[in-house]
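Please, structure for the following, as tokens.
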Amino acid sequence: MGDNPIPYYADPPSYEYFLQHHLIANIPALIGPKLIDHWEARQKWTQPITSETFSNEKCDDTELNGSLSPHPQLQPNYYYLKQKFGSAQVQVADCNERDFTDQRRTTLPFDDFVDLWQQTDKLDRHHYYLKDWHFVQAFPSENMYQVPDIFADDWMNEYWQKETEDDYRFAYMGGDKTFTPFHADVYRSYSWSSNICGVKKWTLFPPGQEDLYKDKFENMVYDIRHVDPNIFPYFSQAKRFVVYQKDGETVFVPSGWFHQVENIGGTISINHNWLNACNIEQCYQSMVKDLRDVEHSIDDLKDGMDPLEFVTTCQQLLLAHSGWNWKTLDRLLKCISTRLIADKNMHTQPSLQPLLDWQLEKIDRVRQKLGSEPFFSQYDFAV
């Protein structure tokens, strides 16, 4: 793929091509506006940009070849958004206030957030960023977007919507210079992010170099723009790729790719996390690593517990730390395999997903690994 392995598709790729070259290969992609231009959100949530709302000054950021980063072509339709969704409660991050590995967050009425969002004080810049808004849950009757076919095979949201009151479907909205700190996605899942308007600068790091991101205490880099080489002496060695995602474009982020995202102009995006047969083993390995970290963190208490009590305590801590545990994964796999087996018994091969036998084989492999965990068979899944 050359120096930059992230291909651009002006025309959306077919599912079969995307499956082989991106989902299974675990390679990022940037897809042009044709993928989402039909969305209602693209028409109603945006308006033409004006010189008063976005400075024509040169951007501080440059692409790898030294050219200036792109400017947005559209801006949020603040009036429409306030009138339509103003009463909703949303989670807003202050990008100027670090909170451990994240940013300090507060809950605000959406219309109050939009007022903050519209502030254009050039000395202060925008630093309030609406994140992780479960928009579809908040407004289920609003058909503002549709999941593209190439991302439709989504076990995560299938399970969470069916078995819980949660999901991993989000809207993000923020002003110029707001950002998301350096991280890899929840469960090491896939993610896709479609820009309704604005520009995002993505810096993506291929998997397998995580040790370069840590200090001697195992703390991770927080903001890649401000890294002390005395604290993180190896971070500069990490391979990375920079992509500018313009209005209407969609980024696919594969499993385990750490990244940092910075907004240029007033930016709105729709983001989903998801997993399926193609990355379920990577997601399971992420759980295993998190579990080992939990076990190590309370190792000094192990001698005072019987073995099953220690396992149960670790599972409770894993759920609190990582958002899932053995029980969650076991139930997800049962939920998906029940559907797949029903399709197989009906001699049907659903479109927009891999062959049924291949998917079931992936589930069996993870179940075998899960079953080999100490005390898995004795673990009380009702806990």
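The chain has ten helices and 13 strands. Residues 55-66 have pLDDT under 50 and may be disordered.
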